[in-house]
């Protein structure tokens, strides 16, 4: 290992992550409306297109050019299904360097032409996220976080929002593709939280919602049954912007966490209690 875990031989991991996210994002955007009908993964609510696979291939090849010995976990490289990421993390989570990639987060939006999707890239060093990059090609917004060095959008330091309580909060959530257990739990929580907050958004990209919490555009985000590729980059971003990211029982974020609660920190206890009471 080099002295600084964010460089090898002077090459910055962050620069490589940014290059991968922006190249993949530009390519995804250029393919809008020009791809075959989507395939279904483990359910009719879980879509994948050739663009998801192509974006992952592009990122995997670029990472391998710079760091041939690093491990790589991409959504499209594992078996479909709710437990896939947990199993991969159990196997690969201890790797020295692990790249964790969602090549298109928000595929349903992408397929429908709803401009809210992203590329999410994280690098973990022995299980701890040290770089997180989320790119929104529709707005050309690049969110970047480095462990211990803060998080930035458009080169401007991000800071979570200042709402002091749930009653003043704008939250976001998702509607999980797994309809047996995750969706009903998430819907119950939505019903319970809606009357307690200013409002709730569900825009269809967990990674971008996490970036928006870091940027202070949302007070908090929660969802049941997410995967490491949806969350790892955003979790570092929120922590580096002064927020808190835990599972829904209040345990600190780690790569295996699937039921997420992320916030500006000020509302976190109240938020966790409302989720638990739902
Ligand atoms: C999905 C998005 C969505 C969330 C789903 C995720 P995908 O990821 O993040 O917002 O509600 O649970 O699976 O499939 O578009 O990469
Ligand atoms: Ca995703
Ligand atoms: Ca995806």
Structure, explained:
This protein is of the alpha+beta class and 278 residues long. It folds into 2 domains: 151 residues, 2-Layer Sandwich (Fructose-1,6-Bisphosphatase, Chain A, domain 1), CATH 3.30.540; 112 residues, D-Maltodextrin-Binding Protein, domain 2 (3-Layer(aba) Sandwich). A 7-stranded mixed sheet has the order 5-6-7-8-9-10-11, sandwiched between helices. The protein has a 5-stranded mixed sheet with strand order 13-12-14-16-15, sandwiched between helices. Helix 1 runs antiparallel to helix 2 and helix 6 runs parallel beside helix 7. It is globular and about 50 Å long. The model has no long low-confidence stretch (mean pLDDT 93). The structure holds D-MYO-inositol-1-phosphate and calcium ion (2 copies). Belongs to the inositol monophosphatase superfamily. One of its GO terms (biological process) is signal transduction. Keywords: Hydrolase, Magnesium, Metal-binding. InterPro entries: IMPase, Inositol_monoP_metal-BS, Inositol_monophosphatase-like, Inositol_monophosphatase_CS, Inositol_monophosphatase_SuhB. It catalyses: a myo-inositol phosphate + H2O = myo-inositol + phosphate.
